[in-house]
Amino acid sequence: MKTLRMIPALALAAGLAASQATAETVPSFADLGRDPALTAAYRQLAAGADLPGWLQDGAVTTPGQIVGFGGQEFVAVSACRQHDCAAQRFAMLYDPETGAAFGLLSSVEGETAEQLRWLGIGGGPESIDGRTILYAALTGSLANHPGAFSYPR
After folding, report:
1. Staple 35 to which of 14, 23, 31, 57, CB 3.0 to 4.6 Å?
2. Do residues 30 and 82 touch, judged by C-beta distance below 8 A?
3. Would you call 105 helix, strand, or coil by DSSP?
4. pLDDT tens digits for 115-133?
5. Alpha-carbon gap, residue 73 to 125, rounded angstroms
């Protein structure tokens, strides 16, 4: 009887360990400077973009997630300004294999509307699917519905 009671607990522990291992293998924005592919993609995206300093110094980050569009997988990372997450947010998609990167910087000043600054967006699949995923990363929708943001070709 004791063995039967332990089976659900063991299954839960195994599931938690598996999800934790998966989360640890996907880099987050906190890995900037430690993960070579993330760092290179960010530098390429930031070149000439005049991004705010809080992105490299004291940003609050969320776990990275794997998403897909245009037949490719990307890592989605996001961050916000410490003590000002509602007004200053950033999301980035990057392909660790090719170095392709796309970003979105959101800022709200006072009572004005949200200002969105798209980075690296061209005319490919990132122009629709990439924008959708980037904004979902900012709003928390990506974290709440991770399986809903993988678009096939």
Report:
1. 31
2. no
3. strand
4. 999 999 999 999 999 999 9
5. 12
Q: Are strands 88-94 and 72-81 parallel, antiparallel or unpaired?
A: antiparallel
What span, in angstroms and rounded, lies between the C-alpha atoms of 32 and 101? 14
Report residue 24's pLDDT band, with 50, 70 and 90 as the boundaries.
Answer: low
Q: In the block, which residue shows the tokens 């998609």? A: 93
The amino acid at residue 71 is G
Give 147's contacts (C-beta < 8 A, 6+ positions apart).
none
136 in helix, strand or coil?
Answer: helix
Q: % helix / strand / coil in the chain, to the nearest 5?
A: 40, 25, 35
Phi, psi of 58 (to 5 degrees): 90, 20
Amino acid present at 26: V
Structure tokens at 90: 């950033």
Contact 102, 130 (CB under 8 A): yes
d(CA 22, CA 32): 19
Contact (CB, 8 A) for 93 and 67 = yes
Question: In the numeric block, which tokens belong to residue 25?
Answer: 């293998």
**Is the distance from CB of 57 to CB of 45 less than 8 angstroms?**
no
Please say whether the beta carbons of 80 and 59 come within 8 A: yes
